[in-house]
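[Solved] Which block belongs to which protein?

Original post:
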Amino acid sequence: MENDKTVDNLNDLIENIVVKKYVPSCFLTRILLTTDGITYDQAFEAFKSTNVTAPIYYTVAGIDKGAVIEKNPVGTHGVYEVTPDSKDWYVVVTNYDKEENPG
Protein backbone atom coordinates (compact mmCIF):
# COMPACT_ATOMS: atom_id res chain seq x y z
CA MET A 1 0.00 0.00 0.00
CA GLU A 2 1.22 3.51 -0.79
CA ASN A 3 -0.23 4.96 2.40
CA ASP A 4 -0.27 2.79 5.56
CA LYS A 5 -3.20 4.81 6.92
CA THR A 6 -5.52 3.95 4.05
CA VAL A 7 -6.93 0.62 3.05
CA ASP A 8 -7.33 1.57 -0.59
CA ASN A 9 -9.72 -1.12 -1.72
CA LEU A 10 -11.51 -4.31 -0.85
CA ASN A 11 -8.59 -6.45 -2.00
CA ASP A 12 -6.31 -4.85 0.60
CA LEU A 13 -8.90 -5.46 3.33
CA ILE A 14 -9.34 -9.10 2.29
CA GLU A 15 -5.56 -9.58 2.17
CA ASN A 16 -5.21 -8.07 5.66
CA ILE A 17 -7.80 -10.49 7.05
CA VAL A 18 -7.20 -13.70 5.09
CA VAL A 19 -3.52 -13.65 4.16
CA LYS A 20 -1.89 -11.52 6.84
CA LYS A 21 -4.26 -12.72 9.62
CA TYR A 22 -4.84 -9.22 10.98
CA VAL A 23 -7.68 -8.86 13.48
CA PRO A 24 -10.78 -6.79 12.65
CA SER A 25 -10.80 -3.96 15.19
CA CYS A 26 -14.35 -4.74 16.32
CA PHE A 27 -13.28 -8.32 17.19
CA LEU A 28 -10.27 -7.07 19.14
CA THR A 29 -12.48 -4.66 21.08
CA ARG A 30 -15.02 -7.37 21.85
CA ILE A 31 -12.34 -9.82 22.97
CA LEU A 32 -10.80 -7.28 25.33
CA LEU A 33 -14.13 -6.07 26.74
CA THR A 34 -15.31 -9.62 27.47
CA THR A 35 -12.06 -10.87 29.01
CA ASP A 36 -12.47 -11.27 32.77
CA GLY A 37 -9.81 -9.65 34.90
CA ILE A 38 -8.08 -7.69 32.12
CA THR A 39 -6.25 -4.63 33.36
CA TYR A 40 -5.91 -1.20 31.79
CA ASP A 41 -2.25 -1.89 31.01
CA GLN A 42 -3.06 -5.20 29.32
CA ALA A 43 -5.82 -3.64 27.21
CA PHE A 44 -3.62 -0.67 26.33
CA GLU A 45 -0.80 -2.94 25.12
CA ALA A 46 -3.18 -5.16 23.16
CA PHE A 47 -4.80 -2.20 21.39
CA LYS A 48 -1.38 -0.69 20.69
CA SER A 49 0.41 -3.80 19.45
CA THR A 50 -2.19 -6.00 17.70
CA ASN A 51 -2.21 -5.79 13.90
CA VAL A 52 -5.68 -4.74 12.76
CA THR A 53 -7.38 -4.72 9.36
CA ALA A 54 -7.77 -0.96 8.95
CA PRO A 55 -6.76 2.35 10.58
CA ILE A 56 -8.61 3.22 13.79
CA TYR A 57 -8.56 5.49 16.82
CA TYR A 58 -8.81 3.71 20.18
CA THR A 59 -9.69 5.52 23.40
CA VAL A 60 -8.70 3.55 26.48
CA ALA A 61 -9.60 4.67 30.00
CA GLY A 62 -8.69 3.43 33.43
CA ILE A 63 -8.53 4.76 36.95
CA ASP A 64 -6.22 7.80 36.97
CA LYS A 65 -5.02 7.22 33.39
CA GLY A 66 -6.18 7.06 29.84
CA ALA A 67 -4.91 7.13 26.27
CA VAL A 68 -5.79 7.76 22.67
CA ILE A 69 -4.09 5.42 20.21
CA GLU A 70 -3.89 6.39 16.52
CA LYS A 71 -3.48 2.99 14.91
CA ASN A 72 -2.35 1.83 11.49
CA PRO A 73 -2.98 -1.75 10.43
CA VAL A 74 0.62 -2.42 11.53
CA GLY A 75 1.94 -0.25 14.33
CA THR A 76 0.81 3.07 15.69
CA HIS A 77 1.43 6.58 14.48
CA GLY A 78 0.37 8.34 17.65
CA VAL A 79 -0.12 7.46 21.31
CA TYR A 80 -1.26 10.18 23.70
CA GLU A 81 -1.48 9.26 27.37
CA VAL A 82 -2.99 11.14 30.29
CA THR A 83 -1.82 10.26 33.80
CA PRO A 84 -1.74 12.16 37.11
CA ASP A 85 1.84 13.18 36.21
CA SER A 86 0.93 14.49 32.72
CA LYS A 87 1.15 18.20 32.06
CA ASP A 88 -2.11 17.91 30.06
CA TRP A 89 -5.21 16.47 31.74
CA TYR A 90 -7.15 15.79 28.52
CA VAL A 91 -6.71 14.67 24.89
CA VAL A 92 -8.93 16.03 22.11
CA VAL A 93 -9.90 13.60 19.35
CA THR A 94 -11.19 14.78 15.98
CA ASN A 95 -11.44 13.20 12.52
CA TYR A 96 -7.81 14.19 11.91
CA ASP A 97 -4.63 12.76 13.34
CA LYS A 98 -3.12 15.05 15.96
CA GLU A 99 -0.08 15.84 13.81
CA GLU A 100 -2.15 16.35 10.63
CA ASN A 101 -3.16 19.83 9.44
CA PRO A 102 -6.90 19.71 8.62
CA GLY A 103 -6.61 23.03 6.81
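(Second protein starts here: sequence line, then its C-alpha coordinates.)
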Amino acid sequence: MRVWDPLVRLLHWALVAAFVVAWFSHGGYLSLHRISGYLVGALVAVRVAWGFAGPARALLGLRGRSRQARRLPGPHGSRT
Protein backbone atom coordinates (compact mmCIF):
# COMPACT_ATOMS: atom_id res chain seq x y z
CA MET A 1 0.00 0.00 0.00
CA ARG A 2 1.35 3.40 -0.99
CA VAL A 3 1.38 6.11 1.66
CA TRP A 4 1.28 9.71 0.51
CA ASP A 5 3.64 12.38 1.76
CA PRO A 6 2.16 14.43 4.65
CA LEU A 7 2.52 17.68 2.70
CA VAL A 8 0.61 16.15 -0.22
CA ARG A 9 -2.23 15.17 2.11
CA LEU A 10 -2.29 18.65 3.62
CA LEU A 11 -2.30 20.29 0.20
CA HIS A 12 -5.09 18.07 -1.09
CA TRP A 13 -7.37 18.69 1.89
CA ALA A 14 -6.60 22.42 1.83
CA LEU A 15 -7.53 22.39 -1.86
CA VAL A 16 -10.85 20.73 -1.03
CA ALA A 17 -11.55 23.29 1.69
CA ALA A 18 -10.63 26.26 -0.52
CA PHE A 19 -12.77 24.92 -3.36
CA VAL A 20 -15.77 24.48 -1.05
CA VAL A 21 -15.34 28.03 0.27
CA ALA A 22 -15.09 29.36 -3.29
CA TRP A 23 -18.16 27.38 -4.35
CA PHE A 24 -20.39 28.68 -1.57
CA SER A 25 -19.08 32.26 -1.50
CA HIS A 26 -19.79 33.17 -5.13
CA GLY A 27 -23.01 35.02 -4.29
CA GLY A 28 -22.39 38.01 -2.07
CA TYR A 29 -18.94 37.45 -0.61
CA LEU A 30 -16.78 38.47 -3.55
CA SER A 31 -13.63 39.17 -1.52
CA LEU A 32 -13.75 35.76 0.18
CA HIS A 33 -14.47 34.12 -3.18
CA ARG A 34 -11.51 35.86 -4.77
CA ILE A 35 -9.13 34.97 -1.93
CA SER A 36 -10.15 31.32 -1.99
CA GLY A 37 -9.70 31.26 -5.77
CA TYR A 38 -6.17 32.61 -5.44
CA LEU A 39 -5.55 30.06 -2.71
CA VAL A 40 -6.67 27.24 -5.02
CA GLY A 41 -4.21 28.45 -7.66
CA ALA A 42 -1.37 28.74 -5.14
CA LEU A 43 -2.07 25.26 -3.73
CA VAL A 44 -2.01 23.72 -7.20
CA ALA A 45 1.26 25.51 -8.01
CA VAL A 46 2.86 24.30 -4.76
CA ARG A 47 1.65 20.75 -5.40
CA VAL A 48 3.12 20.68 -8.91
CA ALA A 49 6.43 22.08 -7.64
CA TRP A 50 6.49 19.55 -4.79
CA GLY A 51 5.66 16.81 -7.28
CA PHE A 52 8.90 17.54 -9.12
CA ALA A 53 11.15 18.44 -6.17
CA GLY A 54 9.73 16.42 -3.29
CA PRO A 55 10.55 12.95 -2.01
CA ALA A 56 9.60 9.73 -3.81
CA ARG A 57 6.19 9.50 -2.11
CA ALA A 58 5.26 12.97 -3.38
CA LEU A 59 6.17 12.55 -7.05
CA LEU A 60 3.56 13.10 -9.72
CA GLY A 61 4.21 9.70 -11.31
CA LEU A 62 6.05 11.05 -14.33
CA ARG A 63 9.22 9.03 -13.91
CA GLY A 64 7.63 5.61 -14.32
CA ARG A 65 5.64 6.36 -17.49
CA SER A 66 8.07 4.67 -19.88
CA ARG A 67 8.00 1.52 -17.77
CA GLN A 68 4.20 1.56 -17.79
CA ALA A 69 4.08 2.20 -21.54
CA ARG A 70 6.12 -0.95 -22.20
CA ARG A 71 3.39 -3.00 -20.55
CA LEU A 72 0.64 -1.61 -22.78
CA PRO A 73 -0.46 -3.43 -25.91
CA GLY A 74 -0.46 -1.55 -29.17
CA PRO A 75 1.83 1.05 -30.77
CA HIS A 76 3.16 2.45 -27.48
CA GLY A 77 4.09 -0.84 -25.89
CA SER A 78 6.16 -3.85 -26.80
CA ARG A 79 3.22 -6.25 -27.03
CA THR A 80 1.47 -6.51 -30.38
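Accepted answer:
You had them paired correctly. Confirming on the second one: The helical segments are 6-24, 30-53, 65-71.
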